[in-house]
């Protein structure tokens, strides 16, 4: 009687599946975790205490992470955290469904990117279709991040890689190292992203975006060391509220190219370790929007020098002023390729760039008044002051297509400078050891001969 009653009680409270060995139960649950039910582990865990125990103690059941753009970013991030924790220490598969918007690729994947060494398989469906097997060589790093900002109607046009094949989201640069490529019509903002660990970001703008959106994205990149921004020449943002300040404590290299937002970008980043600044193709012959509230330095250039790009000269100079005042970075390299400033901005910068070793400028309208700033001088504060030079650590100077400079000024300034810095131990070798001058119309043959007598093999002249 006791045995019969126990059997009857058990049959009323247990399902036949409960009698299966735990190993078989796990296999069944693993089979249930497919993309047709991405939240299956949570559903299974709610059936009974036994099932919950099996689900929570079995990493294999959590190895498939399915994210889609129909869920909120917050819930997707929570799901990613739970699945990666529960599947530990196993590798996992990632599937991304972006049927609605490809701009969410980076926000959805951001919590998983620090764990790339555990990714086994990646696939995407919806706006883009791709898949990649990572099981043979699990990547340890994803760097750089390449962002192409496109018109929404152009997002699905495939970019071709070096071999003429569509470029996938992840491309292999070397074993265990991936590059991430994304295409968006607008940049995600920092609140939608788990802080990104990229040390290098390459961003290309082919539709108008405002500097504000770039800055709001950079808030999510605290480990950034190199930023390459290629813009599209359109009017800078007319500010109705102050721009946010993006703090980039580790940024060492900054490239800004082909944009009219130079002033806004340079004025709104904090880069205390910046050592290289490359400015390229920023000169424009049209007028840029002026700020609503001018600051010190916004007045017209007292030098009255000629300029073919007066508005962009002012924007570039004011942006650099703001960057130097905020961050006081130890710049060693300043390259200005078809990028120019006013005379007053060169004077301001040269007075503050005490660590600069390399200065290159091409297609500048700078006058003799700028090159004269490199001549040794005695401060006017009183007698007994020793001779000084601006840019005291300058070792490499390259001038290209600077046609407003005269040969007489170049010969006089450079000759006097090297005579001083070559002969004084106080400069500890920080003298010009390379001078390259090319396509500067004011430098004639006799000027070159005079310079060569002073500089010797340090001088290179190019036609």
TrEMBL record:
Residue ranges of domain F-box in the record: 17-67
One Pfam assignment: F-box-like
Protein name from the UniProt record: F-box domain-containing protein
Source species of the chain: Mycena alexandri
């Amino acid at each position: 009687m006791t045995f019969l009653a126990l059997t009857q009680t058990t049959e009323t409270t247990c399902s036949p599946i409960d009698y299966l060995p735990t190993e078989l139960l796990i296999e069944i649950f693993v089979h249930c975790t497919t993309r047709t039910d991405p939240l299956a582990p949570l559903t299974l865990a709610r059936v009974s205490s036994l099932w919950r125990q099996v689900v929570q103690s079995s990493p294999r059941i959590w190895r498939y992470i399915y994210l889609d753009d129909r869920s909120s970013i917050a819930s997707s991030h929570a799901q990613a955290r739970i699945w990666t924790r529960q599947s530990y220490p196993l590798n996992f598969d990632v599937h991304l469904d972006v049927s609605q918007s490809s701009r969410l690729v980076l926000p959805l994947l951001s919590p998983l990117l620090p764990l790339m060494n555990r990714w086994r398989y990646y696939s995407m469906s919806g706006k883009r279709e791709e898949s990649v097997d990572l099981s043979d060589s699990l990547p340890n790093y994803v760097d750089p991040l390449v962002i192409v900002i496109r018109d929404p109607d152009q997002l699905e046009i495939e970019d071709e890689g070096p071999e003429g094949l569509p470029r996938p989201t992840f491309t292999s640069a070397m074993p265990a190292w991936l590059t991430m490529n994304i295409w968006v019509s607008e940049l995600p903002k920092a609140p939608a992203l788990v802080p990104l660990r990229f040390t290098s970001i390459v961003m290309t703008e082919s539709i108008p975006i405002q500097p504000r959106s770039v800055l709001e994205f950079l808030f999510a990149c605290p480990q950034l060391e190199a930023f390459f921004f290629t813009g599209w020449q359109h009017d800078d943002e007319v500010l109705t509220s102050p721009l946010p300040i993006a703090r980039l404590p580790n940024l060492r290299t900054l490239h800004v190219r082909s944009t009219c937002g130079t002033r806004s970008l340079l004025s709104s980043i904090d880069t205390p370790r910046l050592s290289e600044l490359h400015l390229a193709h920023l000169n424009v012959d049209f007028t840029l929007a002026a700020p609503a509230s001018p600051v010190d330095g916004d007045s017209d250039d007292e030098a009255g020098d000629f300029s073919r790009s007066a508005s962009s000269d002012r924007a570039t100079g004011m942006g650099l002023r703001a960057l130097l005042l905020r961050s006081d970075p130890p710049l060693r390299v300043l390259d200005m390729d078809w990028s120019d400033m006013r005379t007053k901005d060169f004077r301001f910068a040269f007075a503050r760039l005490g660590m600069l070793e390399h200065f290159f400028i091409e297609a500048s309208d700078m006058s003799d008044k700028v090159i004269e700033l490199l001549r040794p001088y005695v401060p006017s504060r009183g007698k007994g002051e020793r001779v000084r030079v601006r840019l005291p650590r300058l070792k490499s100077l390259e001038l290209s297509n600077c046609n407003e400079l005269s040969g007489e000024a170049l010969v006089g300034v450079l000759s006097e400078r090297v005579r001083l810095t070559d002969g004084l131990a106080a400069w500890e070798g920080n003298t010009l050891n390379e001078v390259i001058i090319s396509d500067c119309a004011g430098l004639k043959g006799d000027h070159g001969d005079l310079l060569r007598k002073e500089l010797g093999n340090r001088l290179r002249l190019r036609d």
